Amino acid sequence: DTVSVLYCGYIMAVPTRKLAAYRARKGIKAHRPDIVIVDLKDHVLGRAAAVIAKQLLLGKKITVVRCEKATVAGTEIRNKIKYLQFLRKRKLSNPKLGPFHHRAPSEIFLRTVRSMLPRYTKRGQKALRSLVAYEGVPVNIVHKGHRVVIPRAQRHNCYKGERAFTVLGNLCKHVGWKYAGAVEQAETARIAKSQRAHEKNAKTRDAWKAARKEAVSKIAKHNVEILKKFGQI
Question: Looking at residues 25-54, what average pLDDT do you find?
Answer without folding.
Answer: 85
